[in-house]
Amino acid sequence: MPEPPPPRLDEIDAQLLDLLQHDAGRTLHDLGERVGLSPSAVQRRIARYRKDGLITRQVSVLDPHRFGPAVLATVLVTLVQESFEHHYAFADRMRSDPQVQQCYRVAGPWDYVVVLAARSTRDCGRLGDRLFKADDNIRRYETLVVFDTIKTGLALPLPAPQPS
Questions:
Q1: What are 103's strand-pairing partners?
Q2: Which residues contact 96 (CB under 8 A, 6 or more apart)?
Q3: Could you please report the per-residue DSSP string of 13-37?
């Protein structure tokens, strides 16, 4: 199925979506002041973004330091067999595990990059054993423990606004 064309955004759409990407908890009043619209006009635009699938969900980002120790690790994974079924099974297992924070299918010598969150290095090792070592279709995996988080984010670059 072909990808839908990028949405047609005006300057206000681009500003509003950018603000929402960085902090969706802003009030309608605050957003409206920043983009020059009334709160009700902002609310209508946000409802349209949701209806059109531009906004897929809204989440809260928790401070990981408030919950005690945490270990992040990036795992590089190569599969043995690469059928659609094998890729689907791997992706489904990654989606279903709450300690898998992110998972990307990539080009190059590795098939996947997986980001894990664990309570300790021991927990991280057990998680790796369960997710990767116990899978006969994983040829190789390499775990890279994260020492320091430099930047995280999910904000996307937006298409340039279209003239009306």
A1: 114
A2: none
A3: HHHHHHHHHH-TTS-HHHHHHHHT-
Angle at the Cα of 81 from the Cα atoms of 75 and 85, rounded to 5 degrees: 95
Residues contacting 100, CB < 8 A, separation 6+: 94, 114, 115, 116, 131
11-22 and 28-35 helices, crossing angle to 10°: 140
Q: Is 77 left (phi over 0), alpha (psi -120 to 50) or beta?
A: beta
**Encoded tokens for 136:** 């006969």
Pick the closest to residue 140 from 128, 124, 151 (CA basis): 128
Amino acid, res. 117: A
pLDDT in tens, 42-64: 999 999 999 999 999 998 888 87
Q: How many residues are there in the chain?
A: 164
For 74, other C-beta atoms within 10 Å of its C-beta total 15
Confidence of residue 164 (pLDDT cuts 50, 70, 90): low
